């Protein structure tokens, strides 16, 4: 059969880049960017172009596996695996109750939006509240900060109208982060330069994005808060805030003014190790911009006080009135999400923490970001009523993602039942009792519902224009394989355990919602749905009918003339600039000495992303993994002082463990800092 080229969507990350897939004899042989698709300009990254290697490489699991008494794995039919897993779960629930079963969902379910809803619905169906996600580890602060601050219903002005943008610990050129338009971010930055928009970057590394900035402040790690507080100080001290907006739409500005008073430009510059002149200029540019935005990346979320960083960024935007106003064109009118009426008014703050159920560990309650996955290892290890005995991992790798790998290793090995659904034998899969082999992206249909919906997880997230696309499945799984879609595992378990599945689609952050939740029920006693049917159910009530989206195989921008409406006459909600928990935390930051270092641990370790690796993806694909060693980056001055040569193996050690690394260039680090790349194995001395 001759080669055919089909449009599709790469779903490895939330950018969801449009791609062209060459198919020969039922196999995908080549992937490139789609030049016909709007927004993206034909962009694709090395990971997307490696989809054929992911689908057909030796690292892929083509059959589910069961661990034997000797620790080895043998193939098991997926239906038999579900029979055995369901029986074990029934026995565990009978002895320990539903709360003894937990689920952890990772980034691997990003390509399959319906799967997360089905998984959560199955867990609710058996009566367990123990649902955990990777989002509670890598970026929990934004949703909690929005709960403290409130959210502007109309969102920000259109991205292409901005004449300034502030990026805090975010490198969109590499990460395609949803905090900045991920649709060909390099081109987006070039377009900003052409429009003479000013880019301000706060990042302890000289990143690919920082090199394009009008101002790059390279602080000591963890000092983003001092810089943001000082920018607020300058804006208030110089009267640069949007006084009309602040008076009409906010409260707590005087409390905020008092809290940031100690963060003078000189103090913050000295503390953070940046230029006071740059700090002053950045504050004045941001306040003086007609339209501007601020985005915080995953980097600040790995530091302490991450919620406070996000909160101060929101306060900065609100002080300057950088929100869409009545009469403005609505930037995100939705496509596959329900249409909504946007007004120039806030959704007010709400208490975004302390929800039931509470964990047994440290009395932690649920929060706007869900239950804390960082405490899940302790929930497994802590004896007594409510102890987690069974864990299902869907598209995640907790052995590599949870803090304290020694504790994670002990916890995962303690479980009576560990089931992992993943495409390859990850560090977590190696510890599992069952490993379920799933279908991959080119073997399944999907829409852009997921990246459109990330607008609910941060004010600068989501598509910059009302774009949507649909792709059918393009290729069958490899001959002789036994792979299932992620959601089919939970459908199969529900069938065997006699439970219903209620799938709930939410359209906001708690009460800050554009529309009420929509729930549909799957009855495993009835006919099994197809993946396309689940997509249809998920898109019920969309502004643009799914059938119309399907008419554009390359994707389409569904323009809307919808305008932001004025504030409702009876509305007096306010954005909160003086949330007491946040200002109390800012006072704690003031008392901390972030410059202190321990003699045995004189370096600060910075995380970074690489263009070829995304979380666990790419480590076993030759063209992406390269030599497969852990890269370690340091400043030339430190290398000279320690006499470390290029390519030399070093041991990176902390009070919590150690890992090998190979010296790889500078990595944008300042003196006294190390930068890690993609870890290719669990830390030394474990297992």
Describe this structure in words.
The protein is of the alpha/beta class and 687 residues long. Among the domains are: 65-138 and 370-436, Rossmann fold (3-Layer(aba) Sandwich); 157-322, Dimethylsulfoxide Reductase, domain 2 (3-Layer(aba) Sandwich), CATH 3.40.228; 604-676, Barwin-like endoglucanases (Beta Barrel). Helices cover 30% and strands 18% of the residues. The chain is built from 25 helices and 33 strands. A 7-stranded mixed beta sheet has the order 5-4-19-18-17-6-7. Strands 29-33-30-32-31 form a 5-stranded mixed beta sheet. Strand 4 (65-67) and strand 5 (73-75) form a beta hairpin. The model has no long low-confidence stretch (mean pLDDT 92). This is Choline dehydrogenase. InterPro entries: Asp_de-COase-like_dom_sf, Mopterin_OxRdtase, Mopterin_OxRdtase_4Fe-4S_dom, Prok_Mopterin_Oxidored. One of its GO terms (molecular function) is choline dehydrogenase activity. It is an enzyme of class 1 (oxidoreductase). Residues 655-666 have a biased composition (Basic residues).
